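User: Study the shape:
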Amino acid sequence: MIGMEFIAEIRRRHFVDKESISSIARGLKKSRPTIRKALQAKEEPVYRRSSQPMPKLGAFQAQLEQWLEIETQLPKRQRRTAQRLYEGLQTEGYQGSYDSVQRFVRRWKGQRFSRPAVTQAFVPLSFPAGETGQFDSGNCSCVALPPASMQSYDNLKTVVDAIFTGKERRFNRRFLTLANHYLFEPVACTPESGWEKGQVENQVGNIREWLFTPRARFADFSELNAWLARRCHELAERRHPGDLTRRVSECFAKEQPLLRLVTAPFDGYVEQTLRVFSTCLIRLDRNRYSVPAAWAGQVVSVRLTADRVRVVAGEAVVAEHARRFGREQLICDPWHYLPVLEKKPGALRHGAPFQDWALSTAIQLVRDRILQQPKGNHAFVELLLLARDLGLEALEVACELTLEGGVIAAPVVLNAMRRLAEPARPQALATPPTPPLQQEPLADCGRYDRLREVRYVH
């Protein structure tokens, strides 16, 4: 390869000094075709290889092509980047470089897809730490919630009541209460202008790439959020994209003192008023939740958060349930119906709230035996009424003792529960020893005989 300094020398010797091509080739020890090419060049030539050898990737190309082919059928958000594909190949035993994987993916996609033209240009944004609600440090915190509602603040469309000209908005009262609690000023962005939100929009794409391509599966949201917390902690040890000399966790530690302290958490609920049906149920989002029987037919307040449903009567929370997001589900607390069972014990057998009641094995065995006895419904309801005051654990222990004794009857269980509820006997007080008498009394049985001889005068 001839550098620009040789090209300049060749052109000067030939065009200025009138030296022949053969003489220049002998002096520089280059071929004559090379000298002729240099004479025609005004800029340094660029040499490109028609193909780049990838010896270490060769054994894994079939696997990589298979992944790329499968992911073409997925939505674009679920497709892995070259970095994620490289990490996947590493788990398969690949020991080559990332560059080889990146070149292969770029060439494969270039042959498969056409690249869209860039039609917009943007100004890079920079937000002072602690001033704007952005992901300034790149330290992400990801929590999965079932709904995209105002309670989770996942989609801020839900906090806007009306959109006016420009950036003017009318926020709803509950969101303004949140802003007042944390003392921040809500400022809306232009609709469909994600570039105004800086790294927030970038973080959404990054989180989708880092955590959800390919999609992972979990048993419930608790397991998912525990995994997300661990992954976010791991991601914080990466190099900061804006300052490669420091890690994300180091940048966040520097910015954290500039953030406003949270002195009191905000109870982010949305409240509405509902009437309790005669079946001790309220209907909410096409599901039904139970309320204590004392509030049947009355109006209560329902406070909704991202994952909880709280029923408030007066100033007290009278019922609380995990929020469900399906349809036509029945969510019942059997204890809410205990006053109804006191008057209608027959409902114990076929009442929907008691069908899937998670009772211990001992209680279930005793219940089944008692319900087979005369007036068994009423007898077991009495046990439940006592368990409401003493606790379900007392009923469980009493049932275990009854099963060990072999005589299974409601009076036996009641007696065991009352004995368990008896307060512990106080310990005997230690009294000081009795002081000795100066003159010990003498035993005189003759006193009794003399008393018998006394005659009363009437």
Remarks:
- The first helix runs from residue 4 to 15.
- Residues 156-258 form one domain.
- The two ends are 155 Å apart (CA to CA).
- The chain is about 40% helix and 10% strand.
